[in-house]
Structure formats: C-alpha cells, structure tokens
Amino acid sequence: MPHTLDADAVRMWCGLALDALGRARADIDAINVYPVADGDTGTNLYLTVESAAQAVDAAFNGHAASAAASRPTLADVVRAMAHGALIGARGNSGTILAQLLRGMADVLADGAAAGDPPAGDGAGAGDGARAGDCDAPAGAADAGGRAPAAGAADADGLRRALRRAADLAYLAVAHPVEGTVLTVAVAAAEGAERAAGDVAAVARAAYAGARTALRATPGQLDVLARAGVVDAGGYGLVTVLGGLAEALSGESPAALAPARPRPATPAPVASDGQGPGACPADGAPDGGPAFEVIYLLEADETAVTALRERLDALGDSLVVVGGDGLWNVHVHVDDAGAAVEAGIQAGRPYRVRITHFGAAAGKAGAGAPDRPGPAAVLPDQPGAQNPTGGPRAERATRAVVAVVPGDGLAALCAEAGATAVATRPGEPPASGELVDAVRRTAAREVVLLPNDTELHHTAAAAAAQARAEGVRAAVIPTRSAVQGIAALAVHEPGRSFDEDVVAMTSAAGATRYAELAVAERQSWTMAGVCQAGDVLGMIDGDVALIGSELAATAEAVLDRMLASGGEMVTLVLGAGLPDEVAERLERHVREEHFAVDTVVYQGGQPTAPLIIGIE
C-alpha cells in the first residue's frame, strides 16, 4: 500500500535500506575496486546507514518519552537521519552517502519548517526549495493559484530532495569522477524529475534511473571494465534507493543483478594508464597514497575552505561533508600526520581513524579486490599501525569481545579475560563500537558474543570489518548475557579456533534463559493482559508469566524452567535488587529441586531486575 512521505516512511526506509545492505554487504565488498581495491565499501555503507537508522530511532524514542508523548515531525526525522549518517560515515562511499542524505534533509526539512505541516499531514515537504534546485513537473500551484494536493507535494518534495542531494555530493568531492556513486545519484534525480504521478511513482523512477546508470558504470571508468564489475558505491546507493521505493510504494522493487566480479574484456587504456577523466586507482603500483584518514571536525565554513585546499595538495579521494559547524573529513594521503595536523589547524578533529592500505596497494591496479591493512584509531591503541609505517605491537593469539548490559557483568567478563562492551538503556552499541573493541584486543583471532538477538546483525557487521582488517573473527549467536557467561566458561585459547568456537556455541545453546521485567503500561502479552507495574516473567524471549511480586514470579519462572531438567541455575542480579531476593531464590532451588546448584552474580544491569540461566 502506498505511503506518504512522512516521519514513519523515513523510519521504514532506514530499516529496509539497512536490511538490504546487510544482505548485500559481502557482495558489494567483493566488487570494490575503486578508488581503492580494499574490499570494504559494502561494510562502510552498512555502518553509515546503521548510524542513520539509530539516530532516527532515537528521535522517535525521545519524543515518545517526553511529557507530551509526542511524535516526531518529518523535519525532526530527516535531520536526525542526516546527522546520524554524518557522524557514523565510513569510507569514501559512506561519506558521500552521508552528504546525499544531508541534501535530501535540506529540502524535506526546510519544506516542513516553512510553515506547513509535515508531509503526510496535508501539506508538502518540499516548499523550502533552494536557489538552483530544478523545478519539477508536478507540485506547483495550478493556474487558479490553488496549492497542490498532499500527494503531489510529496512527489515534488522528493524530486527536489534528490536533485539537491546529487548537487551537494558533487560539491563535497574535490575531483568528481564519472562512473561512480555520483553518476548514479544524478541519474536517480533525473529519473525522479521525469516521473509523473505520486511520491511512490517518483521513488520507483529514481530507483530505475539509478539502476540503469549503475549498469553503465563499467563503460565510464576503465578500472571497473578491467575488473568486470559495476561501481561498488553506486551499487550500494541503488540498494538504499530500493529501500526508499519499497517504503513509499509498499512493493519490493525489481532485484539488482548479483554484485559479483565477472570476466570482462579489458577496456582501452591511455598510455598513461588512466581512463578518460579519471586518475589512477588509489593504491595502484604507480604511486597511490598509503593511508586513509577520516575524522569528524568542529570548524567554521572559512576554516573548512582552507582545509580543503591543504588536504587536496596532500593527497586524493578528498571528500568533506557536513555543515553548520560539524564536518566529516575523508582523504587518502601518504603523510597521515599532516592530514590530522591540518584538521587541528582548522578546528577540533575527533574520532580520528587511520587505515594503512598495506598489501592492497600493490594489487589494486590489477583490479583484484583485496583487504586493507590494520586500522588505527587515535589516540594510540595496542597493536595500532604507526602512521609513519612503523612496526606494530605483537598481537595476542585469541580474544573474546562480549556485549553486556551492566557494570557488574562487564567486570565479570574482564575477570574471565574478555573485552566487555557495556550497553546503555535504549542505546545498543553500533558495529563501529564492536570493531573498536576488537582492535583494542590486538588479537589475531576474536570471538564475539552479542548476548542479544537484536545485536546479531550488528555483530556480524563488526566481524566482517574485523576480517577485512586481517583478524579471524566468529560470532556466537548468544541471545542473553547468561548464554555469554556459559560460553566464556568453556573458552579455551589453547585449542584450535574452530574447536573453541564449536565448544562455546554448544555451551551457549545448552543454556536456557529468562528475564524479569516490570511492565511500564497496559499491554497484551503471550500470557494475557498486563498492567503497569506488573512483573513479567519472560522465558526465551516470550512473556510466560505475569505476577505482582518479583521474588514470587521468579520462583514460578524457575519452577517452570527446571520442570524440564537442569543442573545449574545462574542468577544475575540487576541494579538495586536486594540481596534478600537472591537468598530467597537460592533457598527455593535448594529445597524444591534436588541436586541443582545455584550461582549468583551482581550484574548491575539497569533495565532487567533479574536474569536467569539454566544449564
């Protein structure tokens, strides 16, 4: 069913785009040959959209938690999306995508702020067009001066948003090259401008135009033709636009062709090794830069203009996106220190990330996808690559990274030798946080324990990035902290990686889990209707019991779980739970269930008063 262009549609778009990029990430990584054959474009785009989607969810959650329990407007959500993409942008293509989303937000948010209600509430989202934006065939007032219908205004706003996005992206790139994501963005805007009909028709036309342009990219960039692939960044953008078309039309768009390298006839190359209008692929044998430098920067427009000039003289693949005092800077250079110093002179750089292309530099010219060298995050971390190419510290053999919801659980994991990533209420960690934790271990092999079903996809993305940096990584699909504890208990670095992963997976799978929570409002559950303040006993993720008192409900949960057997009970106490509750439950297990041991941990988790594990 078609959808208006409103806040809900943007949230749905982010979710669909993230899911689609998650499925296509490995394929996009495999065809990444330009500007550097480092095999990470799909992962970078996924991380960028993940950050945008989390910002959108936060906007909805923030309004829902307000005193008025309001809903965000279209302007609120598109600005959150653009900001999230900006601060989470990774790599060349991710940085450009962030600018594309910013361009769309400029038009859609300005239209909603010009005095009209948000799109979908009876008025257009695109009335705030900027000078230079192309006029669309629909959406203008008719001969009698009447305003267009809401659907026509939605369509007009989307046309102008896509055009603004393409224009801003071209301005952000120091030396635009055709046959890349920029070309695909322009084709999407042109397809939208040619389309008549409602906003869903415009979104479908933008997707179709982008697909057509993507297929033509090998004819525009000789490095793509030699490798027999389409542009990886362009493929990712088409995937994102497919999510937009589906969100607005309610129908899945035509599928893209598989993004895998295929044999190709070598394209003619000029005597200097360059295709028309293009520079050699970064990292090619004839002298591509050795480092990728990315950082966020707080600076004014004047300082950023000077920064662009200085970085352009230092290297290539320069992209600077953002505005209003916050920027994301991306450049490939040989002197990473000079690139960071330039940012310091311009303003306040932070989240500095330096990647050494390493062996990939010697293979990019042949069009063979490869993996980048190790990444370094400043300030220095154990095992980080010195920006001058100096030696790195010796890596440990194997490490475990565990996501946990409380300080006590984090300390428990640290005692067991794991690196803990603590979660905050309502703020699950992004893939980038898990990748940073993997880097801090400085290990050759890493096992990730997400300890939450909702984080499995995030952990998979982090593992993919770790593999791209030369780390052997595996994700054990733990769904609760108690499954993570069980996996850690059998972790043995002395055995082979595969054997260790199998043993940890088996231990986690043999652990059933439950959680007690307090209902915040009246709601329907699998166990019936609960009221605010009721205690919910959730077994394996589903509400199984509803009680009025925590300890009694916990006893009932234990009895139900132990009825099918069990040898050991693990109790993880939440922040503020009295010790008397744990003592009562230990006594209950000892008296009612023969030969079952109980172990108690102070987890300190702020949301769940009690987590239960049965092995």
UniProtKB/TrEMBL annotation:
Region feature Disordered, mapped onto this chain:
255-284, 362-393
Where in the numbering of this chain does the DhaL domain appear? 8-246
What spans are recorded as compositionally biased (Low complexity)?
A: 362-376
Q: Which domain of life is it from?
A: Bacteria
Q: Which InterPro entries match?
A: DegV_domain_contain (IPR050270), DhaL_dom (IPR004007), DhaL_dom_sf (IPR036117), FakA-like_C (IPR033470), FakA-like_M (IPR048394), YloV-like (IPR019986)
Cited PROSITE patterns: DHAL
Q: Which Gene3D superfamilies match?
A: 1.25.40.340
Q: Which PANTHER family match?
A: DEGV DOMAIN-CONTAINING PROTEIN DR_1986-RELATED (PTHR33434), PHOSPHATASE PROTEIN (PTHR33434:SF4)
This one is known as DAK2 domain fusion protein YloV
Q: What species is given as this protein's source?
A: Streptomyces demainii
